[in-house]
Amino acid sequence: MAAQESNSNVIGSSQSSEEKDAALINELPSSLFWDVMEIKKWQGFWFEPGLIKCAMRFNSSFQAGNGDVLLASAPKTGTTWLKALCLCILNQNHNIPENEDLLTKDNPQFHVQTIESSIYSTKPTLDLYATSSPRLFHTHLPFNLLPDSISTSNCKIVCVARNPKDTLVSLWHFFNSIFRANQEPYPLEKAVEEFCTGVHQYGPYFENVLGYWLESQKRPEKILFLKYEEMIKNPKEQVKKLGSFLGMPFEKEEDLEKVVWRCSLERLRNLDVNKNGSVIYGVPNGSYFRKGMVGDWKNCLNTEMEDQINQTTLLKFKDSGLKFEN
């Protein structure tokens, strides 16, 4: 009987905690993202309410291991590419035939899941601790919302960031494909305004990126900060740096070249698994691969929009030392 009472109290306590979280989320400031999705401001950032609940669970319960690798990125800054690269580097088998290549079997989003939205959103939560080391995860969350165990353990973080103007244009195309398929695109001037004010899913972009940048300057052994533009310009140099940071240096130049080729955006875009299907409900695998080029913003933004983002960037990154190529 005592055991039953104890179990009952635990269940009641769990329900009480969930109810408290739900009440807290309900009271948070709200806005409407792209006129279709409610977002709420939590800890200085904007999220869809269900995502806040998952992020809370992740923050309060996740225990990082010393061999873990966490990939971090604001949305549409090179996430899928980084997932593919780290998957290949950590697996270390650079001579596998194509039919055994994980990248040919499913989208990188399947192999390296975004922990707060894909893992903590499932019930029951997947057993994260049954996975062999090194565990490889991804998050879109800002640094200050990560669990304490990630900061205090020897878990490594790799962050990829991208020019704000290209990030905004990529976000615009991505969300148009999801929210407004076969409709007129969302007004670009409104998307720019929301991006600059930070009132968008996972926003603000600037504070998210800046948090990882500043921490990488303090603890370079802990956080590797990569820039999308540098990866495009010199992929071999950046992938070599990534391998060394992960403790998996390339011993042969040909192995480095194989990984760069296997994970190239052109190859990933043309794989059947990335042309069809969906890992995340409502998000076609093909939507993760558009142009992937540097400077595509010039084809979309007018002078006024460009100036608005440039001025916001200067203000947000002032005195941080963080700069991006245009």
Keywords:
alpha/beta, four-stranded parallel beta sheet, disordered N terminus, three-stranded antiparallel beta sheet, 326 residues, single chain
Write the layout of secondary structure elements.
Elements: H1 2-27, E1 30-33, E2 37-42, E3 45-47, H2 49-61, E4 69-73, H3 79-91, H4 108-111, H5 115-119, E5 136-139, H6 148-152, E6 156-161, H7 164-179, H8 188-197, H9 205-218, E7 223-227, H10 228-233, H11 235-245, H12 253-262, H13 265-270, H14 272-275, H15 303-316
Parallel strand pairs: 4-5, 4-6, 6-7
Antiparallel strand pairs: 1-2, 2-3
Helix pairs in contact: 1-2, 8-15, 11-12
Can you tell me about this structure?
With 326 residues, this protein is an alpha/beta fold. It has 15 helices and seven strands. The strands form two sheets. A four-stranded parallel sheet has the order 5-4-6-7, with helices on both faces. The chain has a three-stranded antiparallel sheet with strand order 1-2-3. Strand 1 and strand 2 form a beta hairpin. Helix 1 crosses helix 2, helix 8 runs parallel beside helix 15 and helix 11 crosses helix 12. The longest helix is centred in the N-terminal third of the chain and has 26 residues. The protein is globular. The termini are far apart. The N terminus is likely disordered.
